[in-house]
Amino acid sequence: MDIDELIELVQLHGKSIYGFCYKLTGTKEETDDLYQETFLKAVELRHKMDGERNPKAFLIAIAVRLHKNHRRKHAWRQRIAPTVVLDEAAANKPASISKEATPEEAVLSLELRTMIQDAAHHLDDKLKLPLYMFYTADMTVEEIASALRIPQGTVKSRLYKARQTMRSILEVDSP
Amino acid sequence: MKDMDFEHLLRKSLASEAEPEDELNQMLIDQIKERRQLKTRYRKRLSVGLLAIVFLLVLSVSAYAAVQHFSAKQVAEHLSDQLLAEAFESKNAVQINQSKTSGDYHFTLHGLVSGAGLSEFKFSSEEIYPDRTYAVVSITRQDGKPMPPTTDPEYGKDSFFISPLIKGQKPWQVNILSMNGGYSETVIDGIMYRLIACDDVEIFADQGVYLAISSGSSFYSNDAFVYDENTGEIQAREDYPGASLLFDLPFDVTKADHEKAEAYLKSLAAPTSAEEDSAEAGEDEWVNWMDNIRAKIRDGETIGETIAESVKEVTYDDSGKNLIYTYGERRATMSFEGMFEDGQIGFTDRGISFSGDGKTYEALIFHRDEHGIVTGRIIILDDQYFPSEAEPAKEKR
Questions:
Q1: How confident is the model over B264-304, as pLDDT tens digits?
Q2: For chain A, which domains are there?
Q3: What is the CATH superfamily name and number for domain B3-269?
Q4: Mutate which of A30, A60, A66, A85 to disrupt the B interface (most B C-beta within 10 Å)?
Q5: Which residues on adjacent β-strands are paired with residue B327?
Q6: What pTM was computed for the model?
Q7: Interchain proximity B14–A19, CB inside 8 Å
Q8: Substitution target from B5, B9, B13, B391 for chain A, most A beta carbons within 10 A
Q9: Which residue spans traverse the membrane (chain B) (predicted)?
Q10: Of residues A110, A118, A98, A107, the one with CA closest to residue A170
Q11: Is the ipTM of this complex over 0.85?
Q12: Do A82 and B395 make contact, defined as CB atoms within 8 angstroms?
């Protein structure tokens, strides 16, 4: 894949990649950084990318890896000079929800959506990543398996477990 | 709740409405374009690195006069590779001595040989791919001027890409660089000789193997060659301003090994190198370790011995958003928001920080009692909860 094709990907999949990065980081500033780094990493790896073999999944896989790296580095920075903790819980607050909801979306109360987002955000990474990849980035099970380098069966079981966990949280917490 | 409704609810709730701003996208596109230029410069530096190795080899070359082109065997001898010199004389070697002219230069392909253990200089990839292909090419200027000697600052200013390419394989993906290749170079009496080496390409004999040469860069360039996706053929571009040409490598087709070739190509196309995989494994290990500790704390399990004196009530900064924990010389400031769930009492698995020197590891964790009083404490982790040595050791400063 050449540079021009990669630039086309920014236009084509930018929104989707950005939305996924936002779910991972939870803040605009970190999302902007992760989004840019993802594409710049793709520039380095472009010889491994094939325009016809799902470049979006490739980009999401890069974003996941970069995000893991950041968290790891953050954890060790904290060890060396403890500072402000990564505020994961602050992510996914209703700020990410459009104020101009369609009538259909209005059916879902803001409260319920926030509850779901919080529940998803507090899931373990193993369950959270496939969940966001599936529902936020609209990836297929096959694409997720390839991006996370795990078998498709594992993706399915993690998605199932994530759904079950979410459901149990909602059933307990629902008013 | 019905499955369908729940599924719908999840999809609606987890869809992200965050979008990149136009300015951000424009900035990103500009950066991508800049990287294209940066990459070129970086690669040039890389090629200088390669040349440094070449210089080392060149030092051992004696400078006695030669009246005509040297043979592949003699070039190997000059590069102090007696073993390879003998290989070029063996029955497996192919003497070619074909010449072509392109751009400002005249190129001669002298000979090639493939096999395992042929060179005195071992390449790291030989442990995985013991068979390698070696070829010798010489370069002279068309205007009759001598090629600059290796001690001349002009040496290397016009660089060359010389690489086997496989018919049917994208040349930007399968070339000397991806095939664990390298080269040694020397200039004798105004003639430049390059000895190239890479993983064995004789296994592709039935598909067709080219030896591609272009000037202007040490790396493959789509400006110099064109690849026909339908036929798999590669051709030199006539409109390329520098030198650009192809030799057909006359391998013995009976030495082709289709199965081995397929397996080799598959290994080249693997998404990551072994190194990356191990880095990835290290990351996962580290994340797993953290997750494990957090899970233990969530479940109220003991992860080690608490330093009794370290149990201190936290204070808050002026903003009221950050808590401050102080014990001895240790001071930690953390965002309080999200550290505990609403109404949560007990230990939290959030805001944990770790420290360790490879022998002992400590975790700082927080607790909230029924009156809302938050305390921090330091726990000396039990041996069983130590992180694996590999990853933290790497990060230790």
A1: 998 887 644 444 555 555 556 667 777 788 888 878 888 88
A2: 1-92 (1.10.1740.10), 94-175 (1.10.10.10)
A3: Conserved domain protein. (2.60.40.1640)
A4: A85
A5: B330
A6: 0.41
A7: no
A8: B13
A9: 46-67
A10: A118
A11: no
A12: no
